[in-house]
Structures are given as C-alpha cells and as structure tokens.
Amino acid sequence: MSAGRFAPSPSADLHIGNLRTAVLAWLFARSTGRRFLLRVDDLDDRTFTDIGHRQIADLAAIGLTWDAEPEWQTQHPQRYAAAIERLAERGLLYECYCSRKDILQAPRAPHAPQGAYPGTCRDLTEAERAARREQTGRPPALRLRTDVITYTVHDVLHGDYTGIVDDFVVRRGDGVPAYNLAVVVDDAAQGVDQVVRGDDLLPSSPRQAYLAKVLGYPEPIYAHVALVLNEDGARLAKRDGAVTLAEIGVERALRQISESLGWTATDVNGMLAEFDADRLPKRPWIYRPD
Ligand code: GLU
Question: Does 197 sit in the ligand 1 pocket, CB within 6 Å?
C-alpha cells in the first residue's frame, strides 16, 4: 500500500522549519490517500534516543497522525546487511581505502564533476588492495560501482532534476550503513512511494533513485520543499531565538506554518482542506519570530 513519510535525524529538537516540512509531508500523503509513516533516522545519532522520542511527541502535539509504530533505523541492521549482500553478490561493491583528504587531493579527469569520487579504489588488484589495507590500518568503506555519471529524477515541485551519481559509499568504514543506502532500503521496506523532504536533500535524490533502480525498487515520487531560513538568509538555527515547539507553543507554531503557506487554517485538518500541491510557495520561508 502506498505511503508517505517523515524521517527526522535525532540530532536536535525539531525546529519550526522541520515541523513545517513534516506538516507538508503529512499533507502530501493524506491529500493523495496515502498512509503516513514516521522513521527516526538514528544510524548516525544512535545515542540520542530521548531526542527521537521528543521529535515524535512534537509531531503528535501539532496534530499529525501516522499509521504504524514509528521505526528506528538501528532496530533492523539485518535489513541493510541483506541489501549490501545482494549488491556484493552481483559484484557491484568495492572496498575503498581513501580518506577524505585522499579524495580531495586525487587527480580527477577533466570532465569529472566536482565533489564526485574520483574512482581511486575502483579497479585495484587483490595485491593492491592488500597493500592499501596494510598501509591504512583501518577497515575499508564499501562503494557502489555505478555505470552512470548523472541521473535524472522527477520532482513534483522542481520538475526534472539531474544530479551527480558517483561511486558513492553504501557502508562506511566503521561498518555503519551509509545514509543513501539506508533511506532507500527503508523506504522500500516500509512501502514508501512518496518522499517529501527539505530541498537540501534534492542533490541526494539522483544517487538514491539510481540505487533504488539497481536494487529493483520503484522510484518514489519526490517533492523537495523549500527550507526555512532566518532573516540573514542562513539556515534556521538555535541562535535565531525561539525555534522549537517547546519555545513557540503549539498554537502559534501552527499559525506560523499555515501563514507561511498562504493559508488561514489553524490546525492540520484545516490545512488539508486548503492544500494544493501546485500552489505551494517555491521560495524559502524567511522566519521572523513573532
Ligand atoms: N534523516 C534525514 C534528515 O533528517 C532525512 C532523510 C530523508 O528524508 O530522506 O536529514
């Protein structure tokens, strides 16, 4: 059954911008008859369970509803391991011994896109691999052997979007599944076919859609919504004053979110009645605490 989702990382309490993205994800799902799911993306922030629980409580407090118990990524490591195993069996993974510095300093082909992995470890022989392993003394990351340079996804708000797909990491050197692998595997496992999230993640979507294709999963519908910025045009942060639900209060937060979208509703069900995906603001919302 089709579903939308919101998947916060539990690194800090949700701020008004995150809450607005969550409301939009819920509106997209509900207005299209989808289920709505929550997932706490805690692979990178595994010690912050209390923040994850607070995020869930805040989402409930603003009136969002979901159709299954929230999932926590750390609760099903076998899901990622199985996907990695499937890729490995098909010869699609290789070990990478590069540090960040190695990657930055590596010579790159004249047309290689900025920020793309230069392929240093892609074609090492077994002997070269053994030597690198010895030399670095740390466990290697696993990278996906891709056969494209770019990939185009379709986004409801941005149209066709083409971005880099390099040989990206699917498992980090410390054994933790990489973000790009984890979200793709989780979305498929949870039956998520609609991904609504902040447009800071738009550049990740070609890699994720490409990986979904490689794993035989359907590409989700994407909608990358504009972020909330402070008055200086920078990403909203704690120092911008009252930004969390505890500081703003439920009623005021809902009013601010609704107004930012040009609506008058004061709760999420009222917003659902006013929601029109084709008429969402394309520009970032500049947040001024009131
Ligand atoms: N957990 C990610 C974040 O909070 C979002 C994952 C996603 O929406 O795909 O940045």
Answer: yes
